[in-house]
Specification:
The chain has helices spanning 17-30, 39-42, 50-58, 65-77, 90-99, 112-121, 145-153, 168-177, 204-215; strands at 4-7, 103-111, 128-134, 161-165, 181-184, 199-201. By secondary structure, it is of the alpha/beta class. The chain folds into two domains: 4-15 and 86-215, HAD superfamily/HAD-like (Rossmann fold), CATH 3.40.50.1000; 17-77, DNA polymerase, domain 1 (Orthogonal Bundle), CATH 1.10.150. The chain has a six-stranded parallel sheet, sandwiched between helices. It starts with a strand and ends with a helix. The model has no long low-confidence stretch (mean pLDDT 96). This is phosphoglycolate phosphatase. InterPro entries: HAD-like_hydrolase_sf, HAD-like_sf, HAD_2, HAD_sf, PGP-like_dom2. Pathway: Organic acid metabolism; glycolate biosynthesis; glycolate from 2-phosphoglycolate: step 1/1.
Length: 216
């Protein structure tokens, strides 16, 4: 038996909060602001999406959320994703799941070009049969459309599909699609009590162990 695994990106595979705060601080410095954003301040806001996150963190320094998020994403695209940005156990876990023959894909609300860049920087593109990010013509999670596209591109089946994520939007999308949801409790979000969670895992190593038992 094999499984079709869909992974969220930020807060599940990659801890982007340090790059996020660094890029935002460079933007603030460029416009002459004395405001500084700590990673701990950015962490609970990452799941809100770029515009809402920047509006909350910039406060009065946010003059145009759309222009600010465009600049933020441009600067992020210039950064190389470092190995240190992976959550502990992710590389070993992904490699083990690949060795077990599991099909894997990334499904993120991050723009498509950034999803592909991060996966390529980390050399994870070799393991992912699909890399699906946000596009102007597609609804974002919690709408399950991105998950459906990823599942189609990887030739997966709903009956063997699991979604692994850390955000409320991940949980909602999984529930709408009717697939099991593994909550990455080490990430940025908080689960919605009214919606199902198959298992909550404190680290990626425990996610790997749980999935490994499913195919043994």
């Amino acid at each position: 038996m094999t499984l079709d695994l869909l992974f969220d990106l930020d807060g599940t595979l990659v801890d982007t909060v340090y790059v996020t705060s660094d890029v935002l601080n460079s933007m603030l410095k460029e416009r002459g602001s004395h405001r500084r954003i700590l990673p701990e301040e950015a962490r609970p806001l990452v799941t809100l999406g770029g515009e809402a996150m920047i509006a909350n963190l910039f406060g009065d320094d946010c003059l145009d959320p759309i222009a600010d998020v465009t600049e933020y994403r441009r600067l992020c695209a210039e950064r190389v994703t470092e190995e240190s940005s992976l959550f502990p156990g992710v590389r070993q876990g992904i490699e083990k799941l690949a060795d077990l023959g599991m099909k894997m894909a990334v499904c993120s609300n991050k723009p498509q070009n950034l999803v592909e860049k991060i996966m390529t920087d980390l050399r994870f593109d070799r393991y992912m049969t699909a890399m699906v990010g946000a596009k102007p013509d597609l609804p974002r999670k919690p709408n399950p459309k991105l998950l459906e596209i990823a599942l189609q591109e990887m030739n997966g089946q709903l009956q063997t599909c699991w979604f692994i994520g850390d955000g409320e939007t991940d949980q909602e999308a999984s529930a709408t699609l009717g697939i099991p949801f593994i909550f990455a409790a080490y990430g940025y979000g908080t689960p919605i009590p009214e919606l199902p969670v198959t298992v909550s895992c404190p680290n990626f190593t425990s996610i790997t162990s749980f999935l490994e038992k499913k195919v043994r």
